[in-house]
Design the sequence.
């Protein structure tokens, strides 16, 4: 999702630690390389031991490793510019009491935007895995970067906007849009539920 610009929290910086901070950056890069950018999360027992050995707070270390796990979420997102046209899609899928629709693709000079709409009948009891606490990640292929820009929900309806870059072809025939459901907004919380639209 779109983030607010980061504001430097203080003007103070102790230049004596500059070399140490650069070493931290080098170690993060080394960690990514050795783990093939899939490090997982340290066992709590290890975190407790490190907190004791290095006089750090356990919750602080959990936050540090949690941030390292979600580095992809900090990748700059393409901001769509120069709207060109709408491409009609008009596709729908009904699954487990939910009605998923894609109406169109908005084409920009540098990106495409798709909106996933979800409707459900509020007068009937929904399954326990109701989307109310779920998130959907859009996957198209390794050549595309696709991320949720924004979204929201109200009684019986939800809507999520996704930015895709580079932009899809003006003739997207054959493109597969795969929406993968997550219990939390991170890739390692997939529920197994997938909504797939073949254009």
Sequence:
């Amino acid at each position: 999702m779109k983030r607010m610009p980061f504001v430097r929290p203080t003007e103070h910086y102790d230049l004596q630690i500059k070399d140490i901070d650069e070493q931290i950056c080098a170690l993060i890069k080394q960690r990514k390389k050795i783990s093939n950018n899939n490090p997982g999360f340290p066992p709590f027992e290890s975190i407790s031991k490190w907190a004791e050995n290095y006089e750090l707070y356990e919750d602080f270390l959990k936050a540090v490793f949690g941030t390292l796990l979600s580095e992809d979420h900090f990748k700059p997102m393409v901001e769509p510019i120069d709207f060109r046209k709408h491409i009609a899609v008009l596709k729908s899928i009904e699954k487990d009491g939910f009605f998923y629709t894609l109406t169109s693709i908005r084409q920009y000079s540098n990106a495409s935007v798709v909106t996933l709409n979800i409707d459900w009948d509020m007068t009937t009891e929904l399954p326990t895995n109701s989307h109310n606490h779920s998130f959907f990640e859009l996957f198209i292929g390794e050549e595309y970067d696709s991320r949720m820009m924004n979204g929201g929900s109200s009684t019986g309806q939800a809507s999520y906007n996704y930015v895709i870059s580079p932009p899809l072809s003006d003739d997207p025939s054959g493109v597969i849009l795969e929406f993968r459901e997550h219990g939390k907004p991170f890739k390692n919380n997939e529920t197994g539920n997938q909504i797939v639209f073949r254009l």
User: Anything to note?
Assistant: The mean pLDDT is 88.
